[in-house]
Amino acid sequence: MPGLSWHCDLNEYQMERNSPHNKSELLFGIRPIIEAIEAGKEIDKILVQKEQSSPLMNELLQAAFHHKVPVQRVPVEKLNRITKKNHQGAICFMSSIVYASLDNVISDCFQSGTVPMILVLDRITDVRNFGAIARTAECMGVHAIVIPAKGAAQINSDAVKTSAGALNHIPVCREESLIKTIKYLKESGLSVIACTEKAQKTIAQAAYNDPVAIVVGSEEDGISDEIIKKADEIVRIPMTGKIGSLNVSVAAGMILYEAVRQRGG
């Protein structure tokens, strides 16, 4: 297969200088990506060319699956727009943070006598919204942010910058299934409160003093129905204006403020 004879050591991989992404975040070429995965590097996602198949590509896909790295199949045109270099049908976006273990976060909270407050983001895809939410969450004392492995904003330098550096301090946990994560949080003793305009109860009518996980949803369609069904409570932000929705980062800030207010912060 053309291009498979090209070799590159992990420490010598090429970066696309003209890419809109920070050059330290973009890695291309099948072998360098495999080596990054096997080395335990934090990877945001991998884009691979649709319908491309080879032993080396299969090795990459198997490594990604084994290490739970999100992979997305895309047309070659998309890869070519990202870089003009010899990508061999694979481009990798390195994460700007180190992901945390949710299990460890919860355990640490209980062991230290801290009442955990976790923020779950259901498919927040805008990098600046994510950064703004992370900044507010860190200021409000949230113990961890949970995001899905797929369908979430890329945590790159723009996200870190928008968060005013908060992403360097607040743990971010990437989970394969938010439904399973919600179940785990409930089994761990946390109540799950979903913030959605579909609720009758307002954010001030819920209790946040006990261990709690707060869920906010995507910019387009809010929290998924599956997660709403799993929540212990659903609440809304009271509004009297003509516009029926808030920016998700603003909504997250409002419900987090109410939680901190009740906790005596």
List the helices and strands and how they pair.
Blueprint: E1 26-28, H1 30-38, E2 43-49, H2 55-66, E3 71-74, H3 76-82, E4 90-94, H4 102-111, E5 117-122, H5 127-139, E6 144-148, H6 157-162, E7 172-175, H7 178-187, E8 191-195, E9 212-217, H8 225-230, E10 233-235, H9 248-262
Parallel strand pairs: 2-3, 5-6, 5-9, 6-7, 8-9, 8-10
Antiparallel strand pairs: 1-4, 2-4
Helix pairs in contact: 1-2, 5-9
Contiguous runs where pLDDT drops below 50 for at least 5 residues: 1-24
Number of helices: 9
Distance between the termini: 61 Å
Helical fraction: 25-40%
Identify the overall geometry: elongated
CATH topology of the largest domain: Alpha/beta knot
Broad structural category: alpha/beta
Indicate the CATH architecture of the largest domain: 3-Layer(aba) Sandwich
Strand order of the largest sheet: 7-6-5-9-8-10
Would you tell me the overall average pLDDT? 89
What sequence of helices (H) and strands (E) makes up the elements? EHEHEHEHEHEHEHEEHEH
| Gyration radius, rounded | 20 Å
**Number of DSSP strands?**
10
Looking at CATH, the homologous superfamily of the largest domain is SPOUT methyltransferase, trefoil knot domain
Sheet-strand content, in percent, reads: 15-25%
Organism: Sporocytophaga myxococcoides
Protein name: RNA methyltransferase
GO cellular component, one term: cytosol
InterPro entries: Alpha/beta_knot_MTases (IPR029028), Ribosomal_eL30-like_sf (IPR029064), rRNA_MeTrfase_TrmH (IPR004441), SpoU_MeTrfase (IPR001537), SpoU_subst-bd (IPR013123), tRNA_m1G_MTases_N (IPR029026)
